[in-house]
Amino acid sequence: MDIGEIISDSVKYPISDWKKLLTLGVLLLLSFLLIPVFLAIGYAFRTLKTTIAGFDELPEFDEWGEMFIDGVKVFVVTIAYMIIPLIIIFASIFFTGSYGLTLTNVLLPLQAGGSIMIVGFILAIIFGLLLTIAIAHMAFNDSQLGAAFRISEILEVIADIGWANYIIWYIAIIIVGGIIGFIASLVIGLISGLMGLIAPLVGSAVSYILSALLVQPYLNLFYYRALGLRYAYQ
User: Residue 190 belongs to what domain range?
Assistant: First the structure.
């Protein structure tokens, strides 16, 4: 399956069942309660598992305990992979801001902090590429947490896909997701702006609700479907 086919399938996948899309949206809408966040992550991960297994339908919302645990696992794996780049990036910000900056001493800390931040961003890209396949590999191995850290197997999967194909797919998904998100934000902005003419708070509330209920779940399902197809068709 080529990148065009993956994107075409993934764009249609979230709206193949509006009820399930909106159910995921409700979980994201209630994300301030924390537990729904892990349920939402767990459901998105379940779509990854079913996609890799060859299913084209959105999975059911059941076995909530398992779904919650899967969400926690994805969160743990994400933190484990990204903690080093994040520490370096925040350290660069702290390093730059810790100086009493004047005209005489502003250059050195900015240069050093900028260099450290660049290193952090480069590592974030590298670890992000590994993290993406690590999560898919965990899904393929029936949610085994350890599978996400089998680096040699993960590198083998990427090699089977082809590093060039994988990076092109990665960039394409980011671009398509960004375009969808941009268009959605324009539409929501227009709707919330019109509602804001009635009452500013109403406009803000409408913007938040529509984003959480429709845009965020759509983009999550789009991404995990695309990842599942990329992993399944190495």
Answer: 3-232
